[in-house]
From TrEMBL:
Residues 48-103 form a coiled coil. Residues 1-39 form the signal peptide. This is Cell wall-associated NlpC family hydrolase. It comes from Streptomyces thermodiastaticus. PROSITE patterns: NLPC_P60. Keywords: Coiled coil, Hydrolase, Protease, Signal, Thiol protease. Residues 272-390 form the NlpC/P60 domain. The keyword Signal applies. Residues 224-270 are annotated as: Disordered. Pfam families: NLPC_P60. The lineage of its organism: Bacteria, Bacillati, Actinomycetota, Actinomycetes, Kitasatosporales.
Amino acid sequence: MASHRKSRTPGTRVAGIRTPALATAALTSVALLSQTANASPGEDRPSLEEVEKKVGDLYRQAESATEKYNAAKEKTTKQRKRVDTLLDDVAQRTQKLNEARAELGSYAAAQYRTGAGLPDTATFLLAETPQDIFDQRQVLDRMTGRQKAAVDDYVTQQTETMKKRQEATESLRTLTETQGDLKTAKATVQKKLADARELLSKLTAEEKARLAAIEKRKQEEAARKAAELARQQAEQEQAREEAAQQDGGASEGSGSGSTGSTETPPADSSYGIKAEKALAFARAQIGKPYVWGATGPGSYDCSGLTQAAWKAAGVSLPRTTYDQVNAGTTVPVSQAQPGDLVFFYDDVTHVGIYIGNGMMIHAPKPGAYVREESIYYDGDSAIHSVVRPA
């Protein structure tokens, strides 16, 4: 009977008892391994601040590439017009060359009929280059004045036609290179924007909320600095008004200071009228999307907006920030007036139009809309210069 009860040995019993514990340990190990595997990328995952900086850098790099795209596009347009003009000119000159050739042919035919000078004339007509023609001066000695004039015209037309053909060929080569630059700049913009979108897409909802909070704090600080600039400018204006009242116009024309004060207001008044028109246009664009390479009317990039705004005031600005920064008089930030252009970053890749009180209207970046914002939106150091365009 005892033998029938020995089916469960101590070893089997121990194994049965330990099975749940071993299973739990195994599951725990798997979980830990899984956590380690998941944590590994997390250890390399950039902080939120790093993501914010990286995204900001990508947007600035995209804007830099956008300005290069704008420059290449403008150059391509001009070069294409030049090529078209040159090709038209070549066609007209070729027609004149053919007419001159036909006139010489009539002289050759006449000589053939009279039996005079055929070999020399034929040789002349078969010449390949102007140099060959000049080498055969003996032919010219045998021709009448009218024939000589026809030959001179032929030589001139042939020389000019060859020159224009060479210019057209060179312009076509340059156009091809510029189109290559345009394609490269476009690809760069698209790559930078795609990288920025990818970084943002990986953020959790909590991280996006924290990022929004960081952005809000930056905006608050920018607004504080704008208010401080507005206060300083108000104090400067008040000081100027008090100084003008003290002068009272008594020393009109008697000194360099009074001369300056009498000459400056008309210029300021003229500039103010133009600036009002530019600002009115810019305000009407608020809410329209930023689109790289766009010049309106439905969307803009930064330099496209400032160019269009000042065009509405009758002032022609270049297309890119690189050129716009040189299209006027540089003034200190503290003396910025409504209508002035505010440029940003060392590579001058962003621009806005100043509206007063430390604020501007600009097309900020992809995904954003034309809006009013503090000129300190990216900190004091981001401001490159202020330029008065008219």
